[in-house]
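Quick one, probably user error.
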């Protein structure tokens, strides 16, 4: 089992910044992919960004150039630095950890961007 604890969500004005963190604990593997998805009201959960233990990174087109994902393997933590936030970025952001057939999710953290 892997436990994920997210932090850093909140309310911010359009154009502002927020930083999300997600710490993994439990039966973690050094080989893994961590990242973020989000789900807005009435919409499906969608990919935001992923980063592998090998350094590969993937972003959704909607956040490229505005969001930066990074990780600290010594702390088993992944970060999402969000900038130039827009009202359409409002959603619950979920941390994910995956290895092989195993996928785990955090409880989610709310990000609200006011116009």
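Nope, works fine. Designed sequence:
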């Amino acid at each position: 089992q892997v436990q994920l604890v997210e932090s850093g969500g909140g309310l911010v004005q359009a154009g502002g910044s927020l930083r999300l963190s997600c710490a993994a604990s439990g039966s973690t593997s050094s080989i893994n992919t961590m990242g973020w998805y989000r789900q807005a009201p009435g919409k499906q959960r969608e990919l935001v960004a992923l980063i592998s233990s090998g350094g590969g990174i993937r972003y959704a087109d909607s956040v490229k150039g505005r969001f930066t994902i990074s990780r600290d393997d010594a702390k088993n933590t992944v970060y999402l630095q969000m900038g130039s936030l827009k009202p359409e970025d409002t959603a619950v952001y979920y941390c994910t950890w995956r290895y092989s057939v195993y996928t785990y999710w955090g409880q989610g953290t709310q990000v609200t961007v006011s116009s």
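The CA atoms of residues 14 and 86 lie 5 Å apart.
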